[in-house]
TrEMBL record, chains A, B:
Molecular function terms from GO: RNA binding
Keyword Coiled coil set for record: yes
The organism's taxonomic lineage, starting at the top: Bacteria, Pseudomonadati, Pseudomonadota, Gammaproteobacteria, Pseudomonadales
UniProt keywords, alphabetically: Coiled coil
Statement: the UniProt record of this protein carries the keyword Hydrolase: no
Coiled coil: 360-391
Name of the featured protein: ANTAR domain-containing protein
Transmembrane segments: none
InterPro entries cross-referenced by the UniProt entry: ANTAR, CheY-like_superfamily, Nitrate/nitrite_sensing, WH-like_DNA-bd_sf
Domain of life, source organism: Bacteria
Record domain ANTAR: where: 367-428
Length: 435, 435
């Protein structure tokens, strides 16, 4: 097994040692994400459980304790079970997580998520005692779920393999979109059961629909074919038209007309079905992610073994002649990938030296290419951070709430005919200038 | 000692555990750079030794083996010694280097540098036997030195502490500028000893002067006060005017007039003195870097101990009441730093829960602020990569050499009235589009 860390340094470090170490490092990254995949899976399941629990708690509170009392209990028991699995996965990956020198953000986000889970028991008691409103309970669940999803976003930040990074980006945007869908379910339930939608609620519904669509767009841009197929089937399902009809109904009714409160149940069922269908797509992406990790890990291990054999044979051959002199292009400053294009063949054994050097060059090119390919996945992750930052800035500077800040940002983008991430970036960079 | 990695996961992971882990992770990062500092120091020294050796080899080859034969031998012995110290430092940091899952680039750059060092013996033999030209020898040394400096650039990529990152950016840009100065010495020596500067040589000199200035600007923007003072003293030294006079002389003489070849010795001495003075500034930055690492490490360790005490006392108090319920702002989606601004005080012990939650929030804010402050250092590093990429693109697409590509880039920047990194970024992003 080549993935073990070489804790004993070589007596005199050689290029071959570090070339191997570079490959081993890639393998470690893949192994890390094989393990992180399990954690992500338990987060995906726990989030789904909490979304169900949140929905049931809402109906329970909204009905004055009449509806969903039993269902809620069963869902709480499910969530407890899912939380235990999350704790287990976290324990399994604990050594890897805390062994990095660059994961303080990730660890602190885990702390925030765990803190939310620790407070869950007390939240449930308050729901049981009907000691808070449906809106208050929703907010508390939202915060916890947000913290859990943020853990996955942070985890995605350190993937080195582009195909794996893409699937993780697809996964986490789907999770995020599904969470907006859950928030839309809650907002719609509040409207339909009260029989009216005031303008704040209408705007919130519109915000949540748009936010979902943006997330799903990113998901679709990075997903594998199977998940895309499932997603398209979900979109083609008649339930989507039905939901759209409800949305129209809610948003057009205004605050004075009233709707039949019975609609609330149908809305809730439709959106619950939709979320379950989204979870199926999520599971498919998760499956592809895992399969890709296994596949890439096996490839990288074989490739490492191949390199080791190659280097061992070169080592044997090189006992005789000294390593080759490498002459690089004239200026000698433009990047390692330039070096070695000109070769001196004077007095040295060119063949073998060139081979070892070629391996280092090849690794340079591979890593560069991977980094280039990673770019778009990194940008998708960066876009989300920038948007959150822009929203926060607007909230602080204008004293507006989250929904309003999102609206301001969207309006800016529309008015200027630019994309939302672009506008968010401009806003953040201007704020830096004005500080 | 709190820096040990917690390999045994906690039974049930808690927010407090991960908050501590997040702080420990920062501490590990600082410890890593304490060790990396030693490696950087040995690289700085080795590069200086190789620059001296390159200079002596040049004069030796240029004089047909008449000059600097003994000096060169002494310098080779010095470099051998410095290489041994570099190998030692590398061995000491080997475990840390290979324990990361994100350092495959760094490891491969080390492999490239080691490969260059392995070929050094054969290069020296060729110099000794006068089996290559001064230009060929210069190129080989340039390539090796470039690879060594790139190791420092790559190492700087993973610093998490902004003040440390800034000093490392200052250090590596000074190293890079000094290397351009060394290349200018070689180019000037070639011109003065031949008695003439053709237009390619003149342009190369101008390129090297400009490239130095750019590096020194970045250095000055990030350096500590002591190093800045040394730098300003160096600039105010009369040697600078003298060098400027030589530059003017070389560049204005053209290819038909001839200069007194004796000027070559004065030029060589002047530039050698300048490089030794630059090395003193480099040592000062290195000293500040080390001091800052020690200081930040002690601070972080104290701060961690303080947190641990605080959390332990909170743990004790929290045996009784359950953790608090956290209610977040309405939409529950805008980032963890929002959560917890509204608090429910119903039926739960607010005081203690708030304290633990506050610690997590405070850590979030700290990390975010550090990341914001890191921005400019990261950008300086990114700028260099982008410029190398842009130069490479130009070389490939136009079939021109490194100097010419730099000139094209500079001309673009001047024509458009934009900064060089900006033009390089635009070029690279356009190339991505046109692929």
């Amino acid at each position: 097994m080549n993935t073990r860390k070489r804790k004993t340094p070589p007596q005199t470090p050689s290029a071959a040692d570090y070339l191997i170490a570079s490959r081993q490092c890639e393998l470690m990254n893949l192994q890390y994400f094989l393990q992180m995949g399990k954690l992500v899976q338990t987060i995906s399941n726990l989030v789904h459980g909490l979304q169900r629990e949140r929905g049931a708690s809402n109906v329970f509170l909204g009905s004055g304790g009449e509806k969903f009392a039993q269902e809620r209990k069963a869902m709480v028991a499910d969530s407890e079970q899912l939380a235990t699995l999350f704790y287990q996965a976290l324990s399994e990956v604990h050594g890897e997580l805390t062994g990095h020198t660059v994961s303080s953000h990730l660890l602190n986000h885990i702390a925030a998520a765990l803190h939310g889970l620790e407070a869950l028991q007390s939240l449930r008691e308050q729901v049981h005692n009907q000691a808070l409103t449906a809106a208050e309970a929703t907010d508390a669940y939202c915060s916890l779920i947000h913290n859990l999803i943020t853990v996955v976003f942070e985890a995605a930040d350190t993937v080195a393999d582009p195909s794996i990074a893409g699937l993780l980006v697809a996964m986490v945007h789907l999770m995020n979109g599904k969470e907006y869908c859950g928030q839309e379910r809650a907002a719609g339930s509040a409207g339909f059961s009260s029989g009216a939608f005031d303008s704040a609620l209408t705007q919130r519904m519109m915000h949540l629909v748009e936010a979902q669509e943006r997330c799903f767009d990113v998901f679709f841009g990075f997903a594998d074919d199977e998940s895309k197929g499932l997603w398209q089937a979900l979109r083609a399902h008649e339930r989507e038209q039905e939901i759209e009809r409800f949305r129209q109904l809610g948003c057009s009714v205004g605050r004075y007309k009233t709707l039949d409160p019975e609609l609330a149940d149908s809305w809730f069922s439709l959106m619950t079905e939709r979320m379950d269908a989204l979870k199926e797509v999520e599971d498919a992406v998760e499956g592809s992610f895992h399969a890709r990790c296994v596949e890439r890990f096996a490839e990288a291990r074989n490739s490492l073994a191949h390199q080791e054999t190659l280097i061992a044979s070169l080592d044997g051959q090189e006992q005789g002649p000294k390593p080759v002199l490498v002459l690089c292009e004239t200026a000698g400053e433009s990047g390692t990938s330039q070096a070695g294009e000109t070769w001196s063949s004077e007095g040295v054994s060119q063949q073998f030296g060139r081979s070892i050097f070629d391996l280092v060059q090849e690794q340079s090119r591979r890593l560069q290419q991977m980094q280039d390919e990673l770019q778009s996945a990194k940008e998708a992750l960066e876009d989300r951070k920038t948007q959150e930052k822009a929203v926060l800035l607007l909230m602080e500077s204008r004293g507006i709430d989250n929904d309003q800040a999102h609206r301001v940002l969207r309006k800016l983008a529309m008015d200027q005919g630019r994309k939302l991430p672009e506008v968010a970036r401009a806003l953040v960079s201007m704020a830096d200038l004005l500080k």
